[in-house]
Predict the structure of Peptidase M14 domain-containing protein.
Amino acid sequence: MAFDPSIGVPGKPWGDAERDKWRALQTPQRSYADDVLSRMDGLDERFERVTYGRIEYAGESYDLHAFRSRDWDPALPTALVTGGVHGYETSGVMGALAFLEQSAAAYAGKVNLLVAPCVSPWAYERINRWNYDAIDPNRNFRADGPAREATALIELVRATSRDYLLHIDLHETTDSDETEFRPALSARDGKPFEPGTIPDGFYLVADSEDPQLDFQQAVISAVEQVTHIAPADEKGEIIGSPIIGPGIIEYPLTQLALCASITNAQFKTTTEVYPDSPRVTPEDCNRAQVAAVCAALDFALANSVRFIQPG
């Protein structure tokens, strides 16, 4: 466990001293270079690699990499796939890489792809939700925000295209959300911790401003061929939000400054895989992410009202 509940004073937000104590607990547990960069090296012949920034924390540096279609065609729509916004959510990273390795070639000539597999490499190595500054990037996707992981991605996205068809952001909901990261959030902000329930299964988070329910349902239908879908609890909710369809909830993406808000895409969704279920393996989780990306692309390409596909 990388959070010590004795850090800070209950009811009082953290200051510099508390953040320093938290940082001292965040030691690398896996290697971004070995796990992620090594697989990226195998993609360079098929895709154009874009190094879109460098994160430097306490003498350590991490280059941020994305891949885009090598034969970029301005006449085609653009789709964005992001993973590893929360570094501990492993299948988001591995699923994005697996999509590039296994499935992306099928979309050549149909859509321009921009894929950022590991948005938060420092947190990936430490299996953490936050960055070095104890900031959650996925509540700070705004141009003037405090998380460089988020602002660097925003800059890349805006420099790459002005118009997006799709953005799918790959995430996980884990048991450690309840045992570690939500208690840490409450301690950091000086607020009481209110226990919640972790759903067993895959679910999606739509944009409450434009949920595109048919699109979300198409993704759920594809993923349930790979892994089980999270049921609603006795209140008809998943993680405290009412369901709007089987395995589907909604958030105000822009209001919360979530990653899936950073484009003008007609179709937006956030996946949530549950890797701690006794019914799945890590490979099942990765395959679920790939299935979600492919289903999202297929539906978006078939149902766009903004882009006309070539005949």
